Amino acid sequence: MTTGSPARAALIALDWGTSSLRAYRLDGAGRTLDTRHLPWGIMRLPQPLQDGAATPSGQSGFELAFEQACGDWLRAEPHLPVIACGMVGSAQGWREAAYLDVPVDLERIGTLLTRVERNGATPVHIVPGLIQRHGLPNVMRGEETQVFGVLFDQADDPADSVLIGLPGTHSKWVNARRGQVTHFDTFMTGEVYAALRGHTILGRTMIEAPTSDMAAFERGLKVAGVPAGRAGVLSTIFSTRALGLTGELAGVSQADYLSGLLIGHEISALADMLRLQGELPRIVVCGDDALCQRYILALRHYGLGTPRLAQHATERGLWHLAVSAGLVPVPSSSETTS
Amino acid sequence: MTTGSPARAALIALDWGTSSLRAYRLDGAGRTLDTRHLPWGIMRLPQPLQDGAATPSGQSGFELAFEQACGDWLRAEPHLPVIACGMVGSAQGWREAAYLDVPVDLERIGTLLTRVERNGATPVHIVPGLIQRHGLPNVMRGEETQVFGVLFDQADDPADSVLIGLPGTHSKWVNARRGQVTHFDTFMTGEVYAALRGHTILGRTMIEAPTSDMAAFERGLKVAGVPAGRAGVLSTIFSTRALGLTGELAGVSQADYLSGLLIGHEISALADMLRLQGELPRIVVCGDDALCQRYILALRHYGLGTPRLAQHATERGLWHLAVSAGLVPVPSSSETTS
């Protein structure tokens, strides 16, 4: 398990979540030399063998996954620093890392990494999460790194308000201004979609479709904005089934309709909250391409304009955090990549 | 499998849903003589044996369940009429019964029963469901019978608007006036609660509690009404987990908090819709006692007053529908029970 790249690296960066682990090997300008995608999320780590020479006794699932992710990279360049973000820093992770209170200066994040010692081997530096204690409490782990990546790469005036959308299992919408995260919201849209589809009557009439039905998605998207949408998502989701019973929505279109319906309720609520605040910030969206396209349709439909799409935010964030923490030297301006 | 009651019956009434079957033996005044509760919902019928004398060949799961529910009652009094409501009349049921379009005169329901012939044995008369085609379509099967029962037993002026709440897996809120069902809404609150608890991250930190934590329920109930509630239920549900992480909500209290949160969003939306309509009708609630108590707290909190509790609505509705359909003679006024 070796990689062919002879280029010298400066950092190993790990995006280590609940269900998967991505490893990046970055050079001295923050450019990605190698990427690996492994299934070893913190809830599904490789199991240490109880005997046999293949696994040194006492090695944890975290160590095993770490070895597969970047053991060879570290043997080739033993002095590379390692930074990691995500649920690896949760109470169920390798080591519990701090939560920083919002509002927070982003620069502080890089000064509060949690160092995991590894018996003299290269330590791992885990990025803290963010916690918001006013109103209903809210937490994030991993998304703070994406926000860091988006904000440090943006060309705009950092004094401007920006709203960063990170759609996924738990969508995060993060308000930032003058290098501070000022507020964030979580929407469990992705996980609720999966639970409704897999474990309620709505899934029973859905038929697997070979391609997306974007017309059904857009039909669902609009529901939150029509008078019947006032009943809220606990009510409108039932229309997925009722439209099927009345012959108005085919089984193959019901999953995309439901996806649109949920994303529509999320973005409609977001738009209402932004209007109450009296400001419509610039919006940046970052995440899986197909999912971002759905959110772009939703943002347009609910009058929030067309957002900018940010890419590679996690590896950019891990890079900038490692620089900010002094794990890697500040690159000279001639090396910097955008 | 015989019952000891020697009293003469006038009707066998079946409440036959997805997950269970209730059978009632009623006398000539509509009083309940016997009740049986069987697990034979239409999605979990008894399986006909493939051979052996115990099961006459060709007998369906519906016939087997029917025999267990009331076979002995019919052998004792072979000429009793039988009426049934609920999902037994769905496409997956014994025989698909009609849907009547809302608005609908309740008296019409009794004139459009679907008759299931049983090879010369006593036929079964299935109550039609209701369908609402304006706005987002909506359907019910079984609840129309409860509405019938509530409205025919009420002492108030039938010209008044009444809103009948039927909390459960799928809560129904049914507007009626002058003997007509004019509108209804469905909220999938109960099923969403079960899916969130059983199949999302929210369930992972919940700890089974021996008793209900009504303080946690009421705390969740209020969320829809505070500023953070504007983000909608897809967002606020995450506070179940976040309050646990911040040490503000014990694992044993999280299920009741989530229950309150969901019911709060349902009733908050209902209250907003009623205020937009400009009228606050009398409210009647009908269903499982403990669940109705939760809804009463919610209705009070969101300014909808204290509803009347209706009991035995299904058997009362089946009785009145059977009278209305001419299956049983109209009782003389001296026999009538309230």
TrEMBL record, chains A, B:
It comes from the Bacteria. Keywords: Transferase. InterPro entries: DGOK, DGOK_C, DGOK_N. Its EC number is 2.7.1.58. GO terms for molecular function: 2-dehydro-3-deoxygalactonokinase activity. It is an enzyme of class 2 (transferase). It holds the Pfam family DGOK. This is 2-dehydro-3-deoxygalactonokinase DgoK1. It comes from Achromobacter ruhlandii. The gene is dgoK1.
